[in-house]
Amino acid sequence: VAKDLALDLPAFHTRGVRILDRGKTQYFALQEKTGHLVTAERIDREQLCESVQQCVLRCEVIVEGEM
To answer: Where mainly found (predicted)?
Structure first.
Protein backbone atom coordinates (compact mmCIF):
# COMPACT_ATOMS: atom_id res chain seq x y z
CA VAL A 1 0.00 0.00 0.00
CA ALA A 2 2.82 2.41 0.86
CA LYS A 3 4.44 1.76 -2.53
CA ASP A 4 1.14 2.08 -4.44
CA LEU A 5 0.44 5.43 -2.74
CA ALA A 6 4.05 6.58 -3.33
CA LEU A 7 4.58 7.15 0.41
CA ASP A 8 7.86 6.37 2.13
CA LEU A 9 7.52 4.58 5.47
CA PRO A 10 8.03 7.67 7.69
CA ALA A 11 5.28 9.50 5.76
CA PHE A 12 3.14 6.36 5.88
CA HIS A 13 3.12 6.55 9.70
CA THR A 14 2.65 10.32 10.02
CA ARG A 15 -0.19 10.51 7.47
CA GLY A 16 -2.52 8.30 9.50
CA VAL A 17 -2.96 5.56 6.89
CA ARG A 18 -5.52 2.97 7.97
CA ILE A 19 -7.83 0.28 6.62
CA LEU A 20 -11.61 0.51 6.91
CA ASP A 21 -13.70 -2.65 6.45
CA ARG A 22 -17.46 -2.35 6.09
CA GLY A 23 -18.39 -5.50 8.00
CA LYS A 24 -18.15 -6.24 11.69
CA THR A 25 -15.00 -8.34 11.16
CA GLN A 26 -11.84 -6.63 10.02
CA TYR A 27 -10.17 -9.02 7.59
CA PHE A 28 -7.29 -6.78 6.52
CA ALA A 29 -4.54 -4.87 8.31
CA LEU A 30 -1.51 -2.78 7.40
CA GLN A 31 1.93 -3.85 8.57
CA GLU A 32 3.45 -0.74 10.11
CA LYS A 33 7.07 -1.74 9.44
CA THR A 34 6.62 -2.52 5.73
CA GLY A 35 3.42 -0.80 4.59
CA HIS A 36 2.08 -4.13 3.24
CA LEU A 37 -1.60 -5.07 3.23
CA VAL A 38 -2.08 -8.41 5.03
CA THR A 39 -4.97 -10.55 6.21
CA ALA A 40 -5.81 -9.91 9.85
CA GLU A 41 -8.33 -12.72 10.26
CA ARG A 42 -8.89 -16.10 8.69
CA ILE A 43 -11.05 -15.71 5.58
CA ASP A 44 -13.51 -18.57 5.09
CA ARG A 45 -14.91 -18.24 1.57
CA GLU A 46 -17.56 -20.93 2.10
CA GLN A 47 -18.93 -19.09 5.12
CA LEU A 48 -18.81 -15.59 3.60
CA CYS A 49 -19.93 -16.30 0.05
CA GLU A 50 -21.59 -19.70 0.11
CA SER A 51 -24.22 -18.92 -2.54
CA VAL A 52 -22.17 -16.55 -4.71
CA GLN A 53 -19.91 -17.57 -7.60
CA GLN A 54 -17.51 -14.62 -7.19
CA CYS A 55 -16.48 -13.70 -3.64
CA VAL A 56 -15.34 -10.09 -3.14
CA LEU A 57 -14.28 -8.49 0.13
CA ARG A 58 -14.11 -4.71 0.00
CA CYS A 59 -12.12 -2.39 2.19
CA GLU A 60 -11.02 1.22 1.98
CA VAL A 61 -7.60 2.70 2.57
CA ILE A 62 -7.89 6.01 4.41
CA VAL A 63 -5.02 8.51 4.19
CA GLU A 64 -5.27 11.68 6.23
CA GLY A 65 -4.11 14.94 4.68
CA GLU A 66 -3.62 15.87 1.06
CA MET A 67 -2.45 13.38 -1.56
So the answer is: membrane
